[in-house]
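Late entry, evening session. Most of the bench is empty. Finally got around to the prediction I had been postponing all week. Sequence below, unchanged from the version circulated by S.P.
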Amino acid sequence: MRKIFTLLCITTLIFTSCSSDDDADLDTIGQTFELDNVDFIAPEFAVNIPFPQGIEVFESDVVLVYRLEDVVDGRDVWEPVPTPAIFLDNGGELTYRFNFTLVDVDILLDSPDISLIGSDFTQNQVFRIVVVPSAFAKNTDINLLDFNAVQSALNLDF
């Protein structure tokens, strides 16, 4: 009887020890937060955003950044960063881009002539930042350029 009990315990241990959660089935946990009233100020025209308490970023994670481009019929229109070049009527041109570490995100506004960029692009900007495991970003059929698709796939509430 003792041998059967020991064998049963070893079998249970082997099967539970061999289970893995490699996110291949996309049971990921995404983390997201929103930044309102972001201002890009001379001379850097860059903003450093530390990750809020409770947002943990691992070496293998991927950070996605989206800028609120417009609101149409009460719905937010999110544009992925880096943005394509935005050409202004006055000849100005700009793009938003970002980089990140394990503790923060830098969002930068680039322009060949910053004097041509109005405050509607430098003041009161809204960004959403999403942190996802790299397996999700690498192995998913989700369009990572579409915030709504990412939000839905990760079941993010906002």
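Two things to note before I forget:
Residues 2-17 form the longest helix (16 residues).
The helical segments are 2-17, 119-122, 134-139, 147-153.
Will write this up properly tomorrow.
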